[in-house]
Amino acid sequence: MTTKKCTIHLPNYSEARPVAEIVQTASQYESRIFLISGDKKINAKSIMGMMSLSLCNNEEIEVEAAGPDEEAAVTAIVDYMSPVA
């Protein structure tokens, strides 16, 4: 299992597009991928689950993956949610 904490830095995160892009990114990997915020642990491949997470900019979350491509999956999600300026 691979986990990494990150802080969300996305413009207009309240819109559905970033959530859909996270789900699309997660769906490219075989591993099981979860986003953890507080006491919620949501399947990153579930659009409804991701919408229920109600993430906000500057919020710290944890990305967790388990499977054959877990490191690449975590890196891809973290890179999307916390782009380098």
Structure description:
36% of the residues lie in helices and 27% in strands. It has 85 residues and is of the alpha+beta class. The chain is built from three helices and four strands; from the N terminus they run E-H-E-E-H-E-H. The longest helix is centred in the first third of the chain and has 12 residues, at 16-27. It is globular, with a radius of gyration of 11 Å. It has a four-stranded antiparallel β-sheet, with helices on one face.
Short key terms for the protein model shown above:
about 80 residues, about 35% helix, four-stranded antiparallel sheet, 3 helices, 4 strands, single chain, alpha+beta
The best one-word shape is globular
User: What assembly state would you assign to the polypeptide chains in this entry?
Assistant: single chain
The spatial strand order of the largest sheet comes to 1-4-2-3
- Span between termini: 28 Å
Helical content class: 25-40%
Count of separate DSSP helical elements: 3
- Average pLDDT metric: 91
Which structural class should the secondary elements be placed in? alpha+beta
Low-confidence stretches: none
How many DSSP E strands?
4
Strand/helix succession: EHEEHEH
Strand content: 25-35%
What about the largest sheet? 4 strands, antiparallel
